Amino acid sequence: MTTMLDSDATTLSIDDATADLLFREARTVKRFTDEEVTDEHIAAAYDLMRWGPSAMNISPLRYLVVRGSEAKDRLNAYTMEGNHAGIQAAPVTLVLAADVDFHVHMDRLTPHAPGVGAHFASQPELSESMGRMNAALQAGYFITALRAAGLQVGPMGIADSAALDADLLAGTAWKSLFLVNVGHAVADAEGATRPRAARLEAHEVSRVL
Q1: C-alpha–C-alpha distance, residues 112 and 56, integer Å
Q2: Sorting pLDDT into bands at 50, 70 and 90, what band is 146?
Q3: CA–CA dist 54, 65 (Å, integer)
Q4: pTM for this prediction
Q5: Is the pLDDT of residue 85 over 80?
Q6: Domain 46-186 adopts which CATH fold?
Q7: CA nearest neighbour of 89 among 198, 190, 177, 183
Q8: CA–CA gap between residue 105 and residue 103 (Å, rounded)
Q9: Domain ranges (residues) in the chain
Q10: Are 42 and 143 spatial neighbours (Cβ–Cβ below 8 Å)?
């Protein structure tokens, strides 16, 4: 038998300002300033998020930094038309991807399980499903870490992932998941974000066994 979880029982261990920065007041941003976002700034966010858990510590998330008009034009060949202008205007767009050959790093990342990398190497379908699932998990950490680094983000889908992979990720075992525009939001500008929409309450989305 199952019962619904009471949503009023949780106490946070972070202060309200941090909760607001990372979640409650953080928004999907559509318009950014032209302030530069450096590779070092993005790497600082990665250095924070990499400590989040993944299955067996496989850590399959990879990212491609796309910056500049020419590079954005190449990227936009594989994105939805409604996103073209936003991608061109953002200081940086990240292609978040899963490395389905994550097993090549497992001797270093999983010393507690010697030989497991060879097991994944022999099962490419398992490697791809594991890689995609865990990279998607890490992508959520990355978005939160970018916010922790003082940046704002605008995630979006890809119109043709296979073609993007064949072009922009050629020579790798990376499989694209989605895109994230990154920068600093335009202050008080109409259209920078949509009005805040509702979210489901804990009791609407949970059951207890």
Answers
A1: 9
A2: very high
A3: 23
A4: 0.92
A5: yes
A6: NADH Oxidase (3.40.109)
A7: 183
A8: 5
A9: 46-186
A10: no
